[in-house]
Each structure stands twice: as structure tokens, then as C-alpha cells.
Amino acid sequence: MPRTLLPVLEESEKKRLQTLMRYERKARKDGYQVIAGIDEAGRGPLAGPVVAAACYIPLRTIIPHVNDSKQLTPKRRAEIFDYIMSNQKIIWGVGIISHEIIDEVNIYQATILAMKQAVANLGVRPQMLLVDGLKLSHEEIPCEKIIKGDAKSHSIAAASIIAKETRDRIMEDYHARWPEYGFDSHKGYGTQQHQEALAKFGPCPIHRKSFEPIRNLLHPVNS
Fold first, then answer.
1. Hey, what domains does the chain have and what are their CATH numbers?
2. Alpha-carbon gap, residue 221 to 223, rounded angstroms
3. Predicted local distance difference test score (pLDDT) of residue 80
4. Average pLDDT over every residue of 108-132
5. Is the per-residue pLDDT at 1 higher than 70?
6. N or C terminus of the chain with fewer C-beta within 10 Å?
7. Which among 8, 128, 126, 108 is positioned nearest to 64, based on CA atoms?
8. Is pLDDT of 22 > 70?
């Protein structure tokens, strides 16, 4: 059984969630009814894919305690993820772009590809996209860039949790194949533990060859 969150919310939480819906309310006043938030996870790591998520939350549906994924504990983030997955009213889509494509087109372009893939996989056609931090130009759907949108928009916050949890679980699966790198703990980011493992074992197949220090390990420059 998926974990669920307590449905009874304190007044302070109700007010916070109402504030978090201000961009969605504005879009509805502008005539848009199907509004999806978009966010990504995994632009900075040295290994693994970049993952984006798009999330549409119908009117009068709320996600208790939803927030920027970085502001949540792993336990709370997993609880909210399970809540989203178990709520049939909430529609979401995910885009996953591999480390090979990241090396081929660069991380920025790969992130845009992941976002567009997430929208294509959404299962409903959005009329408006609220995008966290990046200028997304969609061929058919108007987009609004919102700086730190994962802390300002209900649907972007939900997308940030979906993207983060999806990517973390991918990296935990990779840990089972390459446990010496500690992917289960740092998820591919360039922590001291990860740097030490790279120095000892060298890169593995999911490392991003265009990122430093991977590039230098593979093609050292003579001093």
C-alpha cells in the first residue's frame, strides 16, 4: 500500500498552499484551464541521466505539504511522491535523457529535450506551461518561465518531486551495478566520496564524459 499523507491540514498549511497556487490562478484568469508545471533534476551530477517531469493538478485538487523538492526531507519527499502516484486526478509525465545524449548535445539542450519529452508523455494536452527557471520554447504551447518556481508554484513543486524521486531511484538502481561509486548516497553529484571513487576506479559507463573531472580522467592533459 502506498504511503499517504494526513488529509487534515493546519490553517497555516492551507494558507501556504493557497499562496503556492497563485501562478495557476493567474493562468486560469487569463483563460487557460489545463496548466502544467515543469521541473528537472540532474543537471549538475557527474553521472546518470537528466530527468524532467510535467504535472497537471486539476482545479480543487491539492497536494498536502508539496514544496520545492530540495526543501523536503527524503522521507517527506517520498511520501508526497507516493501520494501523487496514488491520486488518479493528478496527471504527470516524465522525460529521461541519457548521459550519452547529454555528452552529445550538452546538458542545457538535454534538459530542454527532457522537458519536452515530459510534456509529450503527460497524457493530457496542456494549454499553458509553467517552467522552473528555464526559458522553454514549445512549438505549440505558451510557456512562462518562473525563477525558483519550484517554491512558488503548486504544479512546478509537484513536478520537482516527481523528477527528483524518479532520478534518485534510477541512481539507486545504478548503485546495484556499480556499488563502489556510492550512487545510492550522492546520486551522481561530485561529492568528496564520489571524487575519491573516481580517482580510485576511474569512470564507469554512466559517467558523463563531457563533464570535468571525467573528461580529464579520460583525456589527461600533460602539464
1. 11-179 (3.30.420.10)
2. 6
3. 95
4. 97
5. no
6. C
7. 8
8. yes
